[in-house]
Amino acid sequence: MGLFDAFFGKKEKRQPNDQANAANNILLQQKLNYNALVMEKDPQERVSEKTLLEIFAAYFAPNKDFYSVPGSEKFNAYFHAVNAARDEMFSQRQLFAQATKWNGERLAQLVNDPKPGVTNMMICGLIFLMGQYAVVKSALYCVDFAEEIPHCIALYLLLIAQKQPQDKRKQGIDAGEGTNKKPLEDAMNALKACDPAWSFSIW
Question: Is the pTM of this model over 0.85?
Fold first, then answer.
């Protein structure tokens, strides 16, 4: 055994276990952080109409170029996503209730007794909250329910990207192992027409 091997021999024997323990500690801490972030975003009470209108004003209204030219590529991509997300909201009632604390009866009342202009703004706010509920920002955007509500998630990610400078609109997205990522990829790729500066990678 050479001098180098003799000096480092014992340390090398412990290294695999030390590395494994360190890696496990990092993964545990990441999981705890993730769980804490998930708990923080869970609403404790029903989201108010005022909050929904504030969400619309903050995230939807500023992006008029998405929908200001009827029949344009942006217009068609945007409203296709909004309509698909609305359908997801109705079909995924349990997720809808978890994300908003609204029940099906309240949603039906909103749709069946619409207030001109206001109801559509509120529906956009609800869609945003569905997407927000599915996404946790850690090192990446960690996404749940990518198969169930892909358009809600895609709209949410596009709209929060608009708050960034154009050169900062790149998102790394972890959709989770075993998830069929294609519905989310398709929804997000279709929305790229709204903002060519928006880019993303989905794992």
Answer: no
Residues 120-144 pLDDT 10s: 999 999 999 999 999 998 778 999 9
d(CA 113, CA 195): 34
- Answer yes or no: are the C-beta atoms of 138 and 36 closer than 8 Å: no
DSSP structure string for 3-66: HHHHHHHHHHHHHHHHHHHHHHHHHHHHHHHHHHHHHHHS-SSPPPHHHHHHHIIIIITT-GGG
Q: 118 pLDDT exceeds 50?
A: yes
Report the distance separating Cα 89 and Cα 21, nearest Å. Answer: 42
User: Could you give the CA distance from residue 13 to residue 141 in angstroms, rounded to a whole number?
Assistant: 38
